[in-house]
Amino acid sequence: MAIHRSVWLLAAALAIVAAPLVIPGLGGEFKGADDLGTDAIAQAVPGFKPWFQPLWKPPSDEVETMMFALQAALGAGLLGYVIGRRQSSSQKNVAGR
Amino acid sequence: MHIMEGFLPVGHCIGWFAVSTPFVVAGAISVKKIIRERPETRLTLAAAGAFAFVLSALKMPSVTGSCSHPTGTGLGAIIFGPAVMAVIGAIVLLFQALLIAHGGLTTLGANVFSMAIAGPWVSWAIWRGLSKLGASIAVAVFFAAALGDLATYATTSVQLALAYPDPASGFLGAVVKFGSIYAITQIPLAIAEGFLTVVVMDALSGRAGKGDEVAFLAGKVR
Predict the structure, then answer these.
(1) B3 in a domain, yes or no?
(2) Could you tell me if residue B43 is inside a domain?
(3) Residue B50 Cα, gap to closest chain A Cα (Å)
(4) How many CB pairs under 8 A join A and B?
(5) What percent of chain A has pLDDT over 70?
């Protein structure tokens, strides 16, 4: 029952994310909402300049992508480790968690 | 939901820092207390942080034709209460501000308020409310995570509208404008986050469908 539920929930999440990409009529340029928000401010306030700059910026889009991938990998790795440990300890019927 | 570096007026930056700081301090105290009283939950706490780390790195396409990311803060708020997520969310946002130039140090107070405070508190309130009304754990967790995610983006819209009210339609007009950028885009992603949160909760507890799933993860039952 547990596996059943996880499988269809994952499939539903995947469908929600994939739908705008594959259904014609939906979608668009797929710019980041954060960038669109930034654009809206620049439009509302002509001549807008942020008063502070990031201390460090990834030098290119590729490096930025790497940093996002790194963030996801660190999180997924740790999450997978904890789930794996739980599953193995519950199989051995140990109370540890 | 990231307000970029230097994009809020100085007064707003200071104001949001002033609002968020007590929550982060209270969160740190709460984390310490949880680890002292229930040391066996340390791994679950780490997993809740890891979940926020992964989800907030994933920019997903939405039906509005733009991309946004979930927050992943609902899971920890449901298991450990909203206070701890102020700390975990602040760590995620600091990582992104310093290493990806996403968000910012000057806007950290505002971003912590939306992602690490408003979202988790809404998640927690909905989780508690639906549980009291007798909803099943999976249903309550789904709505808590999804609506907490949405609340974060609604908060960002209000924060930006406060700073940049529309010249013609004022604050409310600006809420609608920023809301159409952030909150509408977020609706399908929030639903996906709700589903994923249930999946990860089941995987972490190994007790899908059992009535004490969340209490087990919180270390309150064995």
Answers:
(1) no
(2) yes
(3) 4
(4) 201
(5) 91
Residue A56 identity (one-letter amino acid) = W
Question: Which residue from A65, A36, A22 is spatially nearest to B153, judged by alpha carbons?
Answer: A36
Q: What is the CA radius of gyration of chain A?
A: 21
* 8 A C-beta contact, residue B121 and residue A85: no
Cβ contacts of A76 on chain B, cutoff 8 Å: 50, 54
Question: By three-state DSSP, how is residue B60 classified?
Answer: strand
Domain ranges of chain A: 1-52, 53-97
- Tell me what pLDDT residue B50 has: 98
When divided into structural domains, chain B yields a total of 1
Choice among A16-25, A58-67, B70-79 with the minimum mean pLDDT? A16-25
Give pLDDT, residue A1.
52
Question: Which pLDDT band holds residue B118 (cuts at 50, 70, 90)?
Answer: very high
Q: Domain limits at B210? A: 10-217
- State pLDDT tens for residues B86-116: 999 999 999 999 999 999 999 999 999 999 9
- Beta strands A31-32; B66-68: pairing state: parallel
Contacts of B96 in chain A (CB under 8 A): 71
Burial B151-164 (b: 16+ CB within 10 A, else e): bbbbbbbbbbbbbb
Tokens of B92: 């995620």
Give a yes or no: residue B84 inside a domain.
yes
Please provide residue B67's backbone torsions phi and psi, each rounded to the nearest 5 degrees.
-115, 150
**Does B89 map to a domain?**
yes
Asked whether the beta carbons of residue B43 and residue A82 sit closer than 8 angstroms, the reply is yes
Minimum-distance CB partner of B54 among A31, A33, A75: A75
Q: Is residue B148 within 8 Å of residue B71, measured between CB atoms? A: yes
Identify all chain B residues contacting A89, using CB atoms and an 8 Å cutoff.
Answer: none
